[in-house]
Write a structure and sequence with these properties.
Largest sheet: 4 strands, antiparallel
Membrane topology: Multi-pass membrane protein
Helix content: 55-70%
Keywords: Cell membrane, Membrane, Transmembrane, Transmembrane helix
Protein name: MMPL family transporter
Strand content: 5-15%
Transmembrane segments: 228-247, 273-293, 299-326, 366-388, 508-527, 534-559, 571-589, 623-640, 646-664
Family: Belongs to the resistance-nodulation-cell division (RND) (TC 2.A.6) family. MmpL subfamily.
Number of helices: 24
Strand order of the largest sheet: 2-3-1-4
Radius of gyration: 32 Å
Distance between the termini: 23 Å
Oligomer: single chain
Length: 800
C-alpha cells in the first residue's frame, strides 16, 4: 500500500483534497445539529425533574437570571424601572421562555431586591433544560436584557443557558497549538518541508474528522463538546503519528536507502506501529461506553472517527507527500553531508545513547527516583472531589461571572445555586418548616402547587460548588424529607451536578478495569509477553494518579490559577476523569507501543534483554520526547479556549503526557525492564499456542540464499580492546529477520567458527559477562568470511 501511494502520489493527494473539500462543503451546507442528551436515570435529581416536567410543563427547564445594579440611588427608582420593565416584558413574550419573575411584580418581588436596594434580579425559566434551549433564543434574551444598560446601570446575565452562548473564538486554541508544534518540529528536523508534513497530516485528519462529526450530528446525538475534544486528540495523534514515520524515513535516507524504499520501509515498520497505536487509542475511547452515560456516546463517535482518519492520513497521504519531496525531506546540510561523506553508519549517539547507558548501569537508583517523583505528584489526588464548576470559575470579563459576583454580593453565595425540593405528597407546610430550620439553609420559598406538585426553592448559605452544599443535599434527602413524611425529591442544577459526580465515581472502577484489560490483551498479543502488558498497565495507573494530582493541585487547591487566568479554585468536573483517562490511556499506550516495539525487534534479533532495552531506548527516546513535547504544546493551547472544562482537560492531559513520556517511558519503564531481565519476554508455551498472531513488526522476508549455494563459514577471534582473548563468549549467527542459525562459544584463545547455510547477509551477535553486547551485519560471499570481534565495556551500539 505504501509503495502504491508513493508511486501514485498525485492521485492520492487529489483524492484527499477532494474528500476534505467535499466534506467541508457538505458540512457547511447542512449546518450543525449537536444535541446534549444528558440523563441520569435512577437518581433523585432526575425524579425531581420528571415531576416538575409533569406538573409545570412550561417551567420545568433551567432558570437563568438577569441581574442589575445601580451605582447611585435604588433599583426601585422610576428611571431604573422604565428601562428594565420593557426589557423583561419582551423576554417574557419570547417563544421558549416559560416565565419571568420580576422584582417589580407586587410584594412577592420584594425578596428579589437586596437589602441596600442597589442590586435586583429577575428569574427567567425556560421551557426546556439549558442544554436543550436553542442558542438563538438565548442570544436574543442576552441582547434584549443588555440593551437596557445605561450610565450608572449595570445589567448582567447568568445561568447555564447564558453560559452556552459565551463561546470563545473558534480555532484560536487549535492555531496556537499548531504553531507551537511547528516550532518543535522545525527544531527537531531542521527542515521546513519535514516540519510541514506532520502539520499537513494533522490538518487533513482533524478537518475531515470534524466535518464528518458535524454531518453525523444530524443522524445521531453528538454533544457540542465532541468537536473540541476531537480536535484536541486529533491534533496530538495526527502530528505524533506522522512524526514517527517521517523520522524513520529520514533515518533510512541518511543510511543510503533510495527514497522510495526508505518510505516503504518506514511505513512497513513505524506505519504498522501507528496502525496498532491508533487502534489502542480507539479502544481506550470506546471504554467510555461502559459508563452508560449517554452523552459520552457522541464523544466516543467524534473522537474515534478523528483518530481513525488521522491514522488513515498518516498511512496513505503521508507516503504520497514523501514521494513529492524525495530527498528534500532532509535539511540542506544533511543532503550536502550525505553527498560528500556517503551514508551514515548505523549507531545511536548523543544524549539519548548516554542516557540509555546510564539507565542500564543504574536501574535501581533511576527507578526509585522516578517512583518518588510520581508518588509526590500523586499525593493531592487523595483529596480529589468531583463536582461541577459554575459561573464563579468563568473569566472575570464574562457576563456570567459578573452576574455571579453581583448575586453573591447582594444575596449571599448560595443564591447562585438554589435547590428545588419537589414535593408530590405529604404535608408541605411541615416540610417547609423543617427545611427552614435545617443548618446551612439561608432562604426557603414554596411556589403555588400545580397538579398536586409543590416546588420549594431552597437557597443554601454556601456556594453551589462547596462541600457544605453537597452535605446539605444529603441532609435534605436522608433526614429532613423522610422525617417530614413527604414524597419529595431534591433537584436543581447543583443537585444534578452532585448526582452526576456520584454516578461517575461509582462507575469509574469498571471503566478503568475495562480499558486496562483491553490494553493488556492487545499488548499481550502484539509482544507475546505477560510482563510487558502488566508493566504497561501499572505505568498507566501511576501516570493517571500523578496527572490527577497535578490537576487537583492547580484547579482544586488553586496553585497557579492566577497565572492561567482561570478564576478561582473549585471541584474537578465530574465528566473529566472518564474523558481524560480514556485519552491518557490511549496516548500512553502509543508511547509504550513505539518504545517496546523497537525493544522487541532487537530482542527477536539478539535474544539479549539488556541490549534490546538499551538500543530500544536509545533509538526511540528522542522521537518519543519530541512527540510528547508537541502533545504538551497542543494541550496547553486549550487553556486559551476560555472554557474552564477545556482548560482543565488541557492542563491535565499536558501534565499526563509530560510525566508519561519524560519520566515513565524514558526512565521508569526501561529501568524496570533492565531489573526484570529476560522475564520481560516470558510467555507460557500453552498460551503462546492459543494466542492469535498480531505482529507490530513486519514479517521476515525469505532469505536471499541461493537454493544450491555452497555452505560456508564465519570465523575469527573475540578479543578485548587491549587484544586479550575472551574465553567463553557466546557467538550467535542470525538471519536478517532474527532466526537463529548457529551458536558457539569462543575457545581459550578467543577463536570461534560458525557454519553458514550459503551466501547472504546475516546478523552476528557476541555476548560475554562484563562486556557490552556487539551486533553487526555481515555479508558472506562464496568463500569463508574472517571476522574478528572487539568487545568493550559500556559501549553503545544500535543495529536496525
Amino acid at each position: 500500500m505504501a509503495r502504491w501511494c508513493y508511486r501514485h502520489r498525485l492521485v492520492v493527494l487529489l483524492l484527499w483534497v477532494g474528500a476534505l473539500f467535499g466534506l467541508g462543503f457538505s458540512a457547511s451546507t447542512a449546518g450543525t445539529n449537536y444535541a446534549n442528551v444528558f440523563s441520569l436515570p435512577d437518581t433523585d435529581s432526575k425524579s425531581a425533574y420528571d415531576l416538575m416536567q409533569k406538573a409545570f410543563p412550561n417551567t420545568s427547564g433551567d432558570t437563568d437570571t438577569v441581574v442589575w445594579k445601580v451605582d447611585h440611588g435604588s433599583v426601585r427608582d422610576k428611571a431604573v424601572q422604565d428601562r428594565i420593565r420593557p426589557a423583561l416584558d419582551r423576554i417574557a413574550g419570547m417563544t421558549g421562555v416559560g416565565a419571568v419573575t420580576s422584582p417589580y411584580a407586587g410584594p412577592q418581588g420584594a425578596a428579589q431586591i437586596s437589602r441596600d436596594g442597589t442590586i435586583a434580579y429577575a428569574q427567567l425559566t425556560f421551557a426546556k433544560r439549558a442544554n436543550e434551549v436553542p442558542k438563538d433564543l438565548v442570544q436574543n434574551v442576552l441582547d434584549t436584557a443588555q440593551a437596557a444598560r445605561t450610565s450608572g446601570l449595570r445589567v448582567e446575565l447568568g445561568g447555564q443557558a447564558i453560559q452556552r452562548v459565551q463561546e470563545p473564538p473558534q480555532g484560536l486554541s487549535e492555531m496556537v497549538g499548531i504553531v507551537a508544534a511547528a516550532v518543535v518540529l522545525f527544531l527537531a528536523f531542521g527542515s521546513l518541508f519535514a516540519m510541514l508534513l506532520p502539520i499537513a497530516i494533522a490538518v487533513f485528519g482533524v478537518g475531515m474528522g470534524l466535518f464528518s462529526t458535524q454531518l453525523l450530528s444530524h443522524s445521531t446525538d453528538i454533544p457540542d463538546i465532541a468537536p473540541l475534544l476531537a480536535s484536541l486528540i486529533g491534533l496530538g495523534v495526527g502530528i505524533d503519528y506522522a512524526l514517527f514515520i517521517v523520522t524513520r524515513h529520514r533515518r533510512g535516507i541518511l543510511r543510503g536507502m533510495d527514497p522510495e524504499e526508505s518510505a516503504v520501509t518506514a511505513l512497513n515498520t513505524s506505519g504498522r506501529a501507528v496502525l496498532f497505536a491508533g487502534g489502542t487509542v480507539c479502544i481506550a475511547l470506546a471504554g467510555m461506553l461502559v459508563t452508560r452515560l449517554r452523552f459520552l456516546d457522541g464523544v466516543v463517535i467524534g473522537t474515534s472517527l478523528t483518530v481513525v482518519l488521522s491514522v488513515l492520513a498518516a498511512t496513505t497521504l503521508l507516503p504520497a507527500l514523501l514521494g513529492f519531496l524525495g530527498p528534500r525531506v532532509l535539511s540542506r546540510r544533511q543532503r550536502r553531508r550525505l553527498a560528500a561523506d556517503g551514508p551514515e553508519q548505523e549507531h545511536a549517539s548523543g544524549f539519548a545513547a548516554r542516557w540509555s547507558v546510564n539507565v542500564e548501569k543504574r536501574p535501581r537508583r533511576i527507578a526509585a527516583l522516578a517512583l518518588v517523583v510520581m508518588a509526590v505528584l500523586a499525593v493531592p489526588v487523595l483529596s480529589l472531589r468531583l463536582g461541577a464548576t459554575d459561573q464563579g470559575n468563568d473569566q472575570a470579563s464574562t457576563t456570567t461571572r459578573k452576574a455571579y459576583d453581583l448575586l453573591a454580593e447582594g444575596f449571599g453565595p448560595g443564591f447562585n445555586g438554589p435547590l428545588q425540593v419537589v414535593n408530590a405528597g405529604g404535608d408541605t407546610t411541615t416540610l417547609v418548616k423543617d427545611i427552614r430550620s435545617t443548618p446551612g439553609v439561608a432562604r426557603v420559598a414554596a411556589l403555588p402547587p400545580a397538579r398536586g406538585v409543590t416546588v420549594i426553592q431552597v437557597v443554601p448559605t454556601t456556594s453551589p460548588q462547596s462541600k457544605q452544599t453537597d452535605d446539605l443535599i444529603d441532609t435534605l434527602r436522608d433526614e429532613v424529607i423522610p422525617r417530614a413524611g413527604a414524597q419529595a425529591h431534591v433537584g436543581g442544577v447543583t443537585a444534578v451536578s452532585k448526582d452526576f459526580a456520584s454516578v461517575t465515581g461509582d462507575r469509574l472502577p469498571l471503566f478503568i478495569a475495562t480499558i486496562i484489560g483491553l490494553g493488556f490483551l492487545l499488548l499481550l498479543v502484539a509482544f507475546r509477553s505477560l510482563v510487558v502488558p502488566l508493566t504497561a498497565a501499572l505505568m498507566n495507573l501511576i501516570a493517571a494518579a500523578a496527572s490527577f494530582g497535578v490537576l487537583v493541585a492547580v484547579f482544586q487547591w488553586g496553585w497557579g490559577l492566577d497565572l492561567l487566568n482561570l478564576g478561582k479554585e473549585g471541584p474537578i468536573n465530574a465528566f473529566l476523569p472518564v474523558i481524560m483517562l480514556s485519552l491518557l490511556f490511549g496516548l500512553s499506550m502509543d508511547y509504550q507501543v513505539f518504545l517496546v516495539s523497537r525493544m522487541h525487534e532487537e530482542w527477536v534479533h539478539t535474544r539479549d534483554n539488556a541490549r534490546a532495552v538499551r538500543v530500544g531506548l536509545a533509538e526511540t527516546s528522542r522521537v518519543i520526547n519530541s512527540a510528547a513535547l508537541i502533545m504538551v504544546c497542543v494541550f496547553l493551547a486549550f487553556v486559551l479556549s476560555g472554557d474552564s472544562g477545556a482548560a482543565m482537560a488541557g492542563v491535565g492531559l499536558a501534565a499526563a503526557v509530560a510525566l508519561d513520556a519524560f519520566i515513565l517511558r524514558t526512565a521508569l519503564v526501561p529501568a524496570a525492564m533492565h531489573l526484570l531481565g529476560d522475564s520481560n519476554w516470558w510467555l507460557p508455551a500453552w498460551l503462546d499456542k492459543r494466542l492469535p498472531h498480531l505482529a507490530v513488526e513486519p514479517k521476515e522476508e525469505a532469505e536471499a540464499v541461493a537454493a544450491d549455494g555452497p555452505a560456508s563459514a564465519v570465523h575469527g577471534f573475540v578479543r578485548t580492546a587491549d587484544g586479550e582473548p575472551v574465553d567463553g563468549a557466546s557467538v550467535t549467527l542470525l538471519s536478517k529477520g532474527g532466526r537463529r542459525l548457529d551458536r558457539v562459544r569462543s575457545l581459550a584463545d578467543g577463536s570461534y567458527i560458525l557454519s553458514v547455510p550459503g551466501p547472504g547477509t546475516y546478523l552476528l551477535t557476541v555476548t560475554a559477562p562484563s562486556y557490552a553486547t556487539r551486533a553487526q551485519q555481515v555479508v558472506v560471499e562464496t568463500g569463508p568470511l574472517v571476522y574478528d570481534v572487539e568487545l568493550a565495556e559500556g559501549e553503545v551500539d544500535a543495529v536496525n
